């Protein structure tokens, strides 16, 4: 991975570019390198190039992207990838969900020297959840680079196993600042071999008090290295950091209009894997007759789901990487025309599929990152219409919800598994609506008139010859329309309460997640909602408020904004934290190290 320098300027004839009152970017400021401002309604709208085969990617990476359904670069990818392939520093402003992870992951993967089994890329993220997601994204993109090893390092996971992985050889490290600092201090990885650092969600790191830690890490890096900063907003502190550490950077700004995801009602169901299929069937019972896309993680799962749903008399088709392109096109057209109602697909269908009648998207499996989630749910709510999206998550995946909510800019509501009573009420209401709609048709063609007159004759004959009342004839017709199946569901639903008990038990065990959710739900907590704690680090340990905030936020899993006043003295410090800290978190915080010294936290009397 060699550093390349270039004075090339990325230009575009797009009318959406900010041309500074008619001037070109070079005329407005000859020193500027690349400042691209794009008004984008959707992150899968390309600027100029078509496809990913114009970036100079290897055949293996292009094939991997095609298999995952990546067809066109998003604006941030279109602008950033050429610059990063040249080895330039970059300052990018883009929201989660615009494709920024791929924007830096793809070119950095291509520039890795696979013969050198030591750290070459370091990505810093503000939370452990984001670190896990970014690392998973790298692994997904690296399918065509089997020799590249990726490791996520963050607090709360086993330090020794991370050291073991580092000794075996890792090219890409994704981690939180505190744990990265621990490894640097312990000399468990050679930061001197790093050739690129990516600062992801830089403004979030600033908000959580990590800036001092970030600067400390930056000072440990080699002088010759590539630097990439991505931030959703651009506060003055981030600008200051970029001016100090970035060299001749390309600057890219992606301005999003109101997100289409805000037209989509998004809900989640917490469910164990063993109950997911039954829960899916019950959710489909409440669909409104529009098209449905169900996203699954693997091809094998798509086939299994389709087989089960067909057995339940659903009209289903499969779309995955094994389906030939011509058959894919026919399948999508059948879905568009109403020939099929349910499409079970892998992420190959998450991009570029535009079918207006899709009213519901079900994430049967958790997507591997926030951007994949945004693309998946974007298959509904098209062209200004409303839509619905339902996410199935396991109790252990609850911690990822906040990242998804941040990506779409709205809350994802909790949803209960539909029980028998809910389904039966829906079925009855649907029959009422269908009968009412059919009985109150205002206009009928001559052909319809003839058919209706014939049906009236049949009904009159049945009524007179068999002495059957019109009400009983109507009831028989309704039963006939159900093809002999029962109108009301009376299935065993005891598993729903079992699943709920299992969920609650899992949440009690995951005390850390419960503590974070409870405190993050109140962003306006006052001092009355906090209690004071003493930690055994102070000025003599060269500690700063950001060090304390970062360590506690990362270990306890709480929002940095909920940490109150911090007072630092020579040998100790006071910090105000939300009341009701669970015992498990309290014990774990005692062992957390700041500036290589344990906090040894205690309640202040």
CATH topology of the largest domain: Rossmann fold
How are the strands of the largest sheet arranged?
A: 1-8-2-7-6-3-5-4
Overall radius of gyration? 28 Å
For the terminal residues, how far apart are their CA atoms?
Answer: 55 Å
What would your notes on this structure say?
The protein has four domains: 25-256, 3-Layer(aba) Sandwich (Rossmann fold), CATH 3.40.50.300; 260-418, 3-Layer(aba) Sandwich (Rossmann fold); 422-481, no CATH class; 510-603, Alpha-Beta Plaits (2-Layer Sandwich). It is 41% helix and 16% strand. The strands form four sheets. An eight-stranded parallel β-sheet has the order 1-8-2-7-6-3-5-4, sandwiched between helices. Strand 17 (566-568) and strand 18 (573-578) form a beta hairpin. It starts with 24 loop residues before the first helix and ends with a strand.
Summarize the structure.
41% of the residues lie in helices and 16% in strands.
Secondary structure elements and pairings:
Layout: H1 25-28, E1 35-40, H2 59-67, H3 75-85, E2 90-93, H4 100-110, E3 121-124, H5 128-141, E4 150-153, H6 159-168, E5 172-175, H7 177-186, E6 196-199, H8 202-207, H9 211-220, E7 226-231, H10 236-245, E8 250-256, E9 264-270, H11 276-285, E10 291-295, H12 299-311, E11 316-319, H13 325-337, E12 342-345, E13 358-363, H14 370-377, E14 387-393, H15 401-408, E15 413-414, H16 420-439, H17 446-466, H18 470-481, H19 494-509, H20 511-520, E16 530-535, H21 545-556, E17 566-568, E18 573-578, H22 583-590, E19 593-594, E20 597-598, E21 602-603
Helix pairs in contact: 3-4, 4-5, 7-9, 14-15
């Amino acid at each position: 991975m060699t550093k390349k320098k270039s004075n090339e300027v990325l230009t575009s004839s797009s009318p959406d570019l900010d041309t500074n009152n008619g001037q070109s970017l070079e005329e407005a400021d000859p020193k500027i390198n690349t400042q691209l401002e794009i008004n984008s309604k959707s992150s899968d709208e390309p600027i100029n190039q078509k496809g990913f085969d114009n970036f100079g990617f290897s055949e293996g990476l292009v094939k991997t992207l095609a298999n995952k359904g990546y067809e066109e670069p998003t604006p941030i990818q279109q602008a950033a990838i050429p610059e990063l392939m040249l080895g330039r520093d970059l300052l990018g402003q883009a929201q989660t969900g615009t494709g920024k992870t791929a924007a830096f992951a793809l070119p950095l993967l291509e520039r890795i020297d696979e013969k050198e089994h030591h750290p070459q890329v370091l990505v810093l993220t503000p939370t452990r959840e984001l670190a896990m997601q970014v690392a998973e994204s790298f692994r997904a993109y690296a399918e065509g680079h089997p020799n590249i090893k990726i490791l996520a390092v963050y607090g709360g996971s086993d330090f020794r196993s991370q050291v073991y992985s580092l000794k075996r050889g890792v090219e890409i490290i994704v981690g939180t600042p505190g744990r990265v600092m621990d490894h640097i201090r312990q000399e468990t990885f050679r930061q001197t071999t790093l050739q690129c650092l990516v600062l992801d969600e830089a403004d979030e790191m600033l908000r959580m008090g990590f800036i001092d830690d970030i600067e400390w890490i930056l000072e440990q890096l080699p002088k010759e290295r590539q630097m990439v900063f991505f931030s959703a907003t651009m506060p003055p502190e981030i600008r200051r950091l970029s001016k100090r550490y970035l060299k001749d950077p390309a600057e890219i700004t992606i301005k999003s209009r109101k997100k289409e995801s805000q037209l989509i009602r998004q809900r989640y169901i917490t469910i164990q894997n063993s109950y997911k299929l039954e829960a899916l069937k019950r959710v489909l019972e409440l669909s409104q007759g529009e098209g449905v896309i169900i996203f699954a993680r693997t091809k094998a799962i798509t086939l299994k789901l389709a087989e089960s749903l067909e057995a339940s008399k659903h009209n289903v088709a499969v779309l995955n990487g094994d389906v030939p392109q011509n058959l894919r096109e026919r399948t999508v057209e059948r879905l568009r025309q109403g020939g099929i109602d349910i499409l079970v697909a892998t992420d190959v269908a998450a991009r570029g599929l535009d079918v207006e009648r899709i009213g519901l998207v079900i994430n049967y499996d958790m997507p591997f990152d926030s951007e994949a989630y945004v693309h998946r749910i974007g298959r509904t709510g098209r062209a200004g219409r409303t839509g619905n999206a339902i996410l199935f998550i396991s109790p252990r995946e609850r911690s990822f919800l906040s990242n998804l909510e941040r990506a779409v800019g709205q809350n994802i509501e909790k949803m209960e598994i539909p029980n028998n009573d809910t389904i039966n009420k829906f079925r009855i209401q649907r029959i009422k609506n269908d009968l009412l709609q059919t009985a109150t048709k205002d206009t009928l063609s001559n052909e319809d008139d003839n058919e209706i007159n014939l049906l009236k004759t049949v009904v009159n004959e049945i009524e007179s010859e068999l002495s059957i009342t019109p009400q009983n004839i109507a009831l028989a017709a309704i039963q006939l329309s159900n093809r002999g199946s029962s109108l009301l569901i009376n299935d065993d639903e005891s598993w729903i309460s079992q699943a709920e008990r299992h969920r609650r038990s899992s949440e009690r065990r995951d005390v850390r997640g419960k503590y974070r959710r409870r405190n993050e739900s109140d962003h306006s907590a006052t001092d009355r909602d906090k209690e004071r704690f003493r930690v055994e680090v102070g000025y003599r340990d060269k500690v700063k408020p950001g060090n304390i905030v970062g360590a506690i936020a990362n270990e306890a899993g709480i929002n940095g904004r909920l940490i109150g006043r911090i007072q630092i003295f020579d040998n100790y410090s006071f910090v105000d934290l939300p009341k009701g800290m669970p015992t498990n978190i309290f014990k774990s915080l005692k062992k957390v190290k700041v500036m290589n010294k344990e906090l040894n936290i205690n309640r202040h009397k």
